[in-house]
Write a structure and sequence with these properties.
The structure is a homotrimer of 365-residue chains.
Chain A lengths: L2 E6 L5 H11 L4 E7 L2 E8 L7 E2 L3 H15 L9 H4 L13 H4 L15 H6 L1 H9 L17 H13 L3 H13 L3 E2 L31 H6 L6 H4 L1 H6 L7 E2 L1 H12 L10 H8 L3 E3 L9 E3 L18 E4 L5 E5 L4 E7 L13 H12 L1
Antiparallel strand pairs in A: 1-3, 2-3, 2-11, 4-6, 5-6, 7-8, 9-10, 10-11
Helix pairs in contact in A: 1-14, 2-7, 2-8, 6-7, 8-12
Chain lengths: 365, 365, 365
């Protein structure tokens, strides 16, 4: 695929060469990085640097910035109970679950027992009501397991109760607009022409499908991933806070560059708030997937030896399709990545790792 | 061995063929299943469908139903401290341990430091007194480790303090009799002629003995398993709530069919109570054996990728000898299995898995 | 190397033969063991039984005995908050961290985000002030990760606030002197001539360096281990409570023999206090190194299947260089080991295991 190097800072010239390895495989991809608030790389291959794709769970990183804004504005206290803001949530033994626990995947609500439908998830409120009535699937706080989709209606309902707005509205007004970023929770119809539909996953001999029985809860929660509705026009319009955000790499990096404000006097989010959201809340074996190691902050994904996207202080999120956005206080690094072909294995494109390593090495030199 | 197919519902005809694979290996075994409260399979090979064997830790599933009955009757609150019901238990730093923690193997009392003797375990009260005086082997609540034998006197003493009866008496009156089940905690002398003594484990090249050092606590707690007294006449008479229950597969399934009441208006135990007992309390590495993954609800064993006996909502328990009893709200499935030859590896007979998979597939079709 | 068998009890004669295997590899090493308070082995090879070496994290076992003495004297309650004794520690979300959590590596302070310098660590107070101001790197109590160096200034500042003395002064007066032991936190200048400088690690084909990405936090906390200052003259003089103690095997064993007082009426530390310090506080995956299994009591290391240095009741600590000190109530065993050549892999010299196994077998026979 044709590589379009829109900008690369001289010190970071090796990034172009490393990015070419992805281009050579015929991928359509975008990579944008800032160091200390300065753009150091803006690379694309195969499609426009302004093409938009569904970034799956990278959406959680956008939601996280919105929730951090609520904390900054004094609207939300992570150590309050969820029921304080959302009384119905107290049902069925959930009265003591804190916002901190819920938003770090410890609340035991990765699904309802009956299973949420696409319609309920798209509606948001419908899914939230069902989750509020549900007894936790595990003892709250005893462990964590990735709430791949359910975290969307949960964080959405919290936002609605606190701000009176949907999480999509709040994100748009308080994050996306001030950041002037092409990264949407709920894509406007007018931008649909810029969307590049995701391409299906290809086999990868290096990563054969897992054998052996899955964790029983995984079979229930992730029985149908990727759900096609997530990437549909309806999904893009709904902008699920968990999974159907739409962005370019430029847009992802712009949100994190605005939020962190490295090198500026006016970060979009107070650094102490981001540090609290980036604090490791959970680490180890995921009770849904059974995978290990996994780690989360507040809504953010944390790096592990499995996906070492930055220093221990870094935070962000990857998505099923391969996209990722990361900020790292060590080196004041921000980067975003998007790719059209769903990667195999799913999650952050492993081919991005040498690019990340080079970026960090130069930034810290 | 001769297979006696006493009943198989037409839709479940494949179960007979799959069960024959166990029969062909010369085993004496029994398998009984209900779906929606209806008997769908009643199979036996080698010995009578009414032969009784010691089912080791499947006993914990029988005890669990008895404890759930105490909760149903308003006698026991899982979130109370153990010391509330049993003041002496508060000794040596155990004042805050809850019933929920104790019954999900989190209390740090898988043994005394001195080691409980068979006599103390058979007596029950003697073992309970020693455990009540003991400082927990780990910080209570910090982790879990299977209380293979000690859970018996612990649950027994709780029952005695709360109901004035032994757990064996309470189980017999409140569970076994109403369920009309051949599944005993304390086998009456009159039934001894129906007992088939267990046969010793055979080598299995597919499951060679573990190499490497054991977890140090495992060496202490499980230094002498299987303890011969468990399966002796004295053990069968004592009916240790942890390990020396005696049953047929028909009896095991009957207890769970009665308790769940799938398809009936009158479950033996309230569905909400069973759901609470089936909630995952702990998951991951067992601090006694060092094994992973292990998972428990309240007294119940939960399925894992290692022993996937049902959906994430399923609950039950396997035993050292290979027997198992399970109920699964997903599909309203209940099944019991017993086998005379102690399996290798110990725990649920791995050859049962295709039978379970077929049962679930048909029930959910 | 020449083996000097200064004393071996007849029943333990095999220990000499097993120790010769280490001597034959050209090592300079010392091994001393007590059973029931009686010396049963005092072996050395290559250098004097009274040579002193830096024992790295075995220092934590010496500090643990000092802290246990504070508890014995009624000065310290493990279940109090750290901030109760050290108000500044309450900063940045640490107000609820208990002494128990902090001293079992659960406080989330294995380092500062900026990274402590050798100067700050040597000063102690400087490092403690920085740690007191730091937000925990993980949610306190959520998990544990080895505080390899930072535990030194943390325990040091607790001691200063409580006793008015440095941990080195307190240890010297309350432990080392009464134990009459050649085991120092802060080596007097006059003893420098007896120091044998450690020799560098050699490659070991059986234990190749780990491949794959490290845990991101490991890269930060252990980015420069072993730090040369630890074993320098300055380090030995400072006597970091975490890492730069200096001792012979005789000295290590003497401290633990005095503290446990097996076979005597006058243990240096009350047995109940030692039992509480030896209780397993944490077990599983270390959130700093990502290693598993790891386990700790209060400051003490606990044995695991990876390093099975004793029964589940045993406690002690190994060091990066290969030294170790252990006490085991099961068999009333105490032993100390020191070695000049830094072992590979780091931590307790794996060649010591057959010696430990023989010692335990004879003591328990």
């Amino acid at each position: 695929m044709k590589l379009s190097s829109n900008y690369v800072d001289g010190k970071y010239a090796n990034l172009t060469k490393l990015f070419e390895n992805i281009a050579k495989e015929g991928e359509e991809a975008q990579f944008v990085a800032y160091v200390g608030g300065q753009l150091v790389a803006d690379l694309a291959c195969g499609f426009s640097p302004d093409s938009l794709t569904v970034v799956y769970s990278v959406s959680k990183a956008l939601s996280a910035i919105a929730v951090a804004k609520m904390v900054d504005q004094g609207l939300l206290d992570l150590d309050q109970t969820v029921a304080h803001y959302w009384p119905e949530f107290a049902a069925a033994g959930k009265q003591d679950i804190t916002v901190r626990q819920l938003l770090s995947h410890q609340g035991g609500l990765p699904e309802t027992r009956a299973g949420l439908t696409p319609g309920q998830l798209m509606d948001g409120k419908a899914a939230a009501d069902l989750l509020a009535a549900e007894a936790p699937l595990w003892r709250p706080g005893a462990g964590f397991g990735y709430h791949a989709l359910s975290i969307g209606p949960l964080v959405g309902e919290l936002c609605r109760r606190i701000t009176g707005k949907t999480i999509q509205e709040y994100y748009d007004a308080e994050v996306r607009e001030p950041a002037d970023a092409d990264a949407y929770l709920g894509l406007p119809e007018s931008l649909e022409p810029r969307v590049a539909e995701l391409l299906p996953q290809l086999p990868n001999a290096e990563f054969p499908p897992a054998t052996g029985a899955p964790n029983p809860l995984d079979s229930h929660v992730n029985r149908n991933v990727p759900m096609p509705f997530i990437t549909s026009r309806e999904g893009r319009k709904a902008g699920l806070a968990s999974a159907s955000g739409v962005a370019s790499a430029r847009g992802l990096a712009a949100v994190f560059n605005w939020a962190t404000g490295y090198g500026s006097e006016t970060p979009g989010i107070a650094p102490d708030t981001l540090q609290d959201f980036a604090q490791t809340q959970v680490f180890g074996t995921d009770w849904v997937s059974g995978s290990n190691p996994r780690s989360h902050g507040i809504l953010f994904m944390k790096p592990t030896s499995a996906i070492p996207f930055g220093s221990f202080q870094s935070f962000g999120h990857d998505g099923f399709g391969g996209a990722v956005v990361v900020a790292d206080p060590v080196g004041q690094i921000v980067y975003g990545y998007a790719i059209r072909r769903i990667t195999n294995p799913a999650g952050m494109d492993r081919r991005l790792q040498p690019i990340i390593d080079e970026l960090r090495a130069v930034a810290l030199a």
